[in-house]
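anyone seen this seq b4? input:
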Amino acid sequence: MQHLANHSTYHRGQLAAMMRQLEAEPLATDFHVFLVEGRREAEIQGGCQKVVNTLMAPLWSNRPF
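predicted toks r here
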């Protein structure tokens, strides 16, 4: 298992190095960044879902089924 995690880290580092050679900025590949960004995205989507639910509730309450 440790080899599996470290091997993928190695390849992500290779890709980041290639992108930098092409003068591109690679995305963050750290797991904690993934978790923080995922949580932030979920909070944004959750906020949007609340707005949609509020706007659509009158229509949904009139469904025949």
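The radius of gyration is 21 Å. Residues 2-60 form one domain. kinda curious what u guys think
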